[in-house]
């Protein structure tokens, strides 16, 4: 393994020779990284040790920060184009995907199984982040990098295996980690260099994960359908109003039926009454007793005046 000093010298030489290489390419018309001349040479990563205890070793720190700074100074769009270029090159190497362009290359498994093929090359991965932390960068890095963000991302084809991403930028909403009350965010995309196979501890055992150095995390949170929400409120309000109106109409109809029933019953009762019969029964004809008539007649005869004494 190269010493830290040798890596620094190699990085310095690459920095000095890069402009000369570009000039030579302009003259000859040949570009080994055409059409992406700003890609780092994969050979820079040859001495980076995979599955090493301690993560990024001291001898790798110079290259580590050099790559992060290079990513900050280059266009993210160019990086994505380079990543797509690398993906298509890889597809052309595999017969199945060369003959069937409609098939999607499972990138994570390919990186995991073929680290030597992907180390030092740009890739683009999309998935969900379940862990996001930030910490100060090494104070002795000469590029002025202050803060590093570490994200543990899971892609659709990684199953339960994470990708560890180190970057220098995140969206404002993620500056302090995952949003409060959230343990996972989806729709996260990252484009960066495959640096090494990272060794980490999990549940009393050691596991490995690809370590990607990137410029930033891109997060596209799902948008809330405000139109749909407003439509739901309108539908709910309309349904409530119709329900109240329906209940009111039913109550009004029941009251009308009761009123009609009472009026009909009253009319029926009045039609059954015989007012003439009711009058005769309430005013009976009283006839005097027969004996009372005879006594009155006798009384009348007895009451005649007596004879005069002159006779």
UniProtKB/TrEMBL annotation:
Keywords: Membrane, Signal, Transmembrane, Transmembrane helix
Compositional bias segments (type: Polar residues): 268-285
Transmembrane parts of this sequence: 231-252
Signal peptide: 1-24
Region feature Disordered, mapped onto this chain: 268-311
Top-rank taxon: Bacteria
Protein name: Uncharacterized protein
